[in-house]
Amino acid sequence: MVPTADIADGSRRRVGPVWMVSVVGTPLVVAFLASVLAGALTATTVPVLVGTTGTRAAMDVAGIACVGAGLVATLVPVAAFGRSHRADLAAVAVRRRIDRILVLAAAAWLVAAVLGTVFRTADAFGRSPATLGGAELLAWATRLGAGRGMVLTLGCAAVVLGCAVARLRDPALVQPRIPLVAALLGVLTPAVTGHAGSAPDHEIAIVSIAVHAGGAALWVGGLIALVALVAPHRELLDAALPPFSTLAGVCLGAVTVSGAINALVRVESWSALVTTGYGWLVLAKVAAVAAIAALGGLTRARLRAGRIPVLRWAVVETTVMAVTIGLAAALTQSGT
């Protein structure tokens, strides 16, 4: 089953701003609410919890946006090649939009990472962010794995931003795969240096969470970028969708298997799935992923039957994905 065949409709309609706000805002709201319901307030204060979950969700959204834009940038030239002059012009326009989006998303990623460093340091030292000094920030960023991971993420976001700015000046200066690789590394580092590093079998946990984060970023980011940027251009979509759909199927399998492995490593017993806040978050995330897969299967059946347009199914699917991002952000703030 390929869960991203939702967007085979060649309609020139663009998704609206309400959908974009939903995709960006939903993870932030879900991350905070899920953390509260999982009992996060027993170990921190409301302002710090809002800061840590909000910045983490914002980092995830911005990082996934960079991954998705970078992935689509690598697909669009192939989609346009040898088709028509109109397709070539559309490909140039789409890649130009991608570069502008990368600038905005990478800049937002940098800001969220800087603020996240402040709030996580406050959480680690049990202090208010306003009372922190440079010594505490430096200690957290250099002595703890999570802090060093945040520094690496800042570096990756800076690379993506620099590449995007350079491409706006001259696309020939930087190949699109370079910001894609940098964005993927930036998405992976906070995942593998966060709660996975403290798991009992941390080697397995780190590998599984890396596969999980990378697969989810390619799958979710790629689908959102296709819906927002490529769906209005029929020729580009017809060519870009099949390879992405294949990749999405692989990502779904990787996300499912790696997520199951990571949950088994982190959850001490089956009963912990229903007796701990972390377990409830795991179950909620499983349900969200299952819903995404079901939507993809339904859409694929509609396409095989020739029932189009189906762009609205992709909008629903990406909205559920946004909920999943928020749950993932809440999981990183929770323990077993």
Description:
The protein has one domain (5-332). Helix content is 79%, strand content 0%. It has helices at residues 17-37, 46-80, 85-125, 134-143, 145-169, 177-192, 202-230, 234-266, 272-275, 277-304, 311-332. Helix 2 crosses helix 7 and helix 7 packs antiparallel against helix 8 (234-266). It is globular. The two termini are 32 Å apart.
Summarize the structure.
The chain has 336 residues and is mainly alpha-helical. The chain has helices at residues 17-37, 46-80, 85-125, 134-143, 145-169, 177-192, 202-230, 234-266, 272-275, 277-304, 311-332. It has one domain (5-332).
How big a fraction of the residues is strand?
Answer: under 5%
Mean pLDDT across all residues, rounded?
Answer: 76
Silhouette: globular
Structural class: mainly alpha
Compute the CA-based radius of gyration: 20 Å
Helix and strand sequence: HHHHHHHHHHH
- Total helical segments: 11
Distance between the termini: 32 Å
Q: Percent of residues in helical segments?
A: over 70%
Number of domains: 1
> How many strands, what sense, and barrel or not for the largest sheet?
none
Q: Uncertain segments of ≥5 residues (pLDDT<50)?
A: 1-13
> How many strand units?
0
